[in-house]
């Protein structure tokens, strides 16, 4: 079972990053999704402290202008919106036997599902933090066996790097790459976090190289592809699906 889909990332960012191109046309025969009920707008006096796009703007700097307009729009909140909500299907959720074992070992952190399944209904919610620049991200997989949901907190570090904090004390530094029609999230190392302290994890203890590709299809739809590959044991996880943002 081939899990990892190769993606070539540029060696340098900034002025050398690729400019956005016209969006690829989506494949035909896509599934239609009924729109679930959305959450009510934030109550008076509890409006978000910032727009979701502010975190990406701060992390990307001048490269924000290179990001495809459809992708930029997906992380912008309209007036009165408290969060962005995305729904769709994970067409493939795959893990090797070793990947499933690893997912079970860190199940307390609820970071990775250990299932292999097709066409899994999926929901992804992103809301801004109230007191600092950052996001709360909630992912929910509706497997036949169970509903697997987990949250993480993404913030901007003192040096301007993106930091993602998962449950159980696991954290990940995140590097962003802007490619034509794509925004790519790549791990830049892992750490343990506790009460504001960060302890870098040695490379042999890393869960694996994490790559998430957000690929624009059109103004409404986008694809997400996730791969985790260990430097010694090879590909462990692969997921891919098609989604859209709920409006209104």
From TrEMBL:
One Pfam assignment: DUF4166
> The DUF4166 domain covers which part of the protein?
67-243
InterPro entries, sorted: DUF4166
List, as start-end ranges, the regions of compositional bias called Basic and acidic residues: 27-37
Quote the biased-composition stretches of kind Low complexity, using this chain's numbering: 14-26
Q: Where is this region: Disordered?
A: 14-44
Q: Which domain of life is it from?
A: Bacteria
Query: What's the protein here called?
Result: DUF4166 domain-containing protein
- Origin species, per record, is Lysobacter yananisis
